[in-house]
Design brief:
CATH architecture of the largest domain: 3-Layer(aba) Sandwich
Number of helices: 10
Number of strands: 10
Strand content: 15-25%
Radius of gyration: 19 Å
CATH class of the largest domain: Alpha Beta
Order of helices and strands: EEEHEEHEHHHEHEHEEHHH
Length: about 270
């Protein structure tokens, strides 16, 4: 990968036609390869618009957005940007294009003109990572909402992107499916894939290495999860997740050491030591 940030945004602005205020208003942002950044904020704060800008679906009206050094305003670079940065939307039906699960996962690599054996290997890995291997011959129309969301993720992973942008992509999953999905993301991030996760679920923010808060098209805070929980979570009106409350109580009681993450599986492991 080229040196430098995978995303670099400078004084970016964007307004939708007829809107009274800009959706993105003077945003400056740099994201390093391998980070997991949680992007949070109220509805209408500009999160989804920023995500589309980072995937070259929207071009800044002012300022600039670079992806791996590529200027998103250069139309000739759009295909390369989207090959390296996969965007998974909230509604999976917006991204499912084939009637059979494995054919849908293969759609992206096929469009790259890759050899059939490479496509097969990518499809197999993506299906395994998302827990869809046994559903490979199922009709995509017959899947549940959560299964469709995993299918959308599998299609993105088959492109072997350098970064994943997830726009509320756990919203249709049940608790078990959400936990499995997040485990998958943790594995992908451990492999070096950059993750930008838009979420309103504070229990998901605990997985991130960085928290970015948006309001009225601006980034109003950017820092570590620990700083967010201790200093800003309540100030911004976000609920503190139960995992974090449990961690604080366990630390006070001396049951877990400093550095233990506020993730249920990790807390249970610490308690059993």
């Amino acid at each position: 990968m080229e040196e430098g940030p995978i995303f670099f945004i400078r004084e970016a602005e964007y307004s939708y036609k007829g809107a009274s205020s800009p959706a993105i208003d003077g945003v400056n942002l740099s994201v390093t390869s391998g980070e997991w950044a949680a992007l949070v904020g109220t509805n209408g704060s500009g999160k989804s618009t920023l995500a589309k800008m980072m995937n070259a679906l929207l071009i800044p009206a002012r300022g600039a957005c670079f992806v791996m050094g590529m200027d998103t305003s250069d139309a000739e670079l759009a295909a390369s940007i989207r090959q390296n940065v996969a965007l998974v939307f909230q509604n999976p039906d917006d991204q499912i294009v084939a009637s059979i699960v494995e054919e849908d996962v293969a759609f992206g690599p096929e469009n790259l003109g890759l050899p059939s054996e490479v496509i097969s290997a990518r499809v197999e890995r993506a299906l395994q990572l998302t827990g869809l291997s046994e559903m490979r011959r199922r009709g995509s129309y017959s899947l549940s909402g959560g299964q469709k969301q995993r299918l959308a993720l599998a299609g993105a992973l088959a492109m072997e992107p350098k970064a994943l942008i997830l726009d509320e992509s756990t919203s249709m999953l049940d608790p078990e499916g959400r936990a499995s999905f997040l485990d998958c993301l943790r594995e992908l991030n451990a492999r070096g894939i950059t993750i930008i996760q838009i979420t309103h679920r504070m229990e998901e923010v605990v997985h991130a290495s960085r928290v970015i808060v948006m309001e009225a098209g601006k980034i109003i805070w950017d820092g570590t999860p620990d700083m967010f929980w201790e200093e800003k979570c309540a100030e911004f009106g976000f609920d503190i997740p139960q995992e974090l409350e449990l961690l604080r109580a366990l630390r006070v009681g001396g049951f877990v050491p400093a550095g233990t993450r506020p993730v249920v599986s990790d807390l249970l492991e610490a308690l059993c030591l």
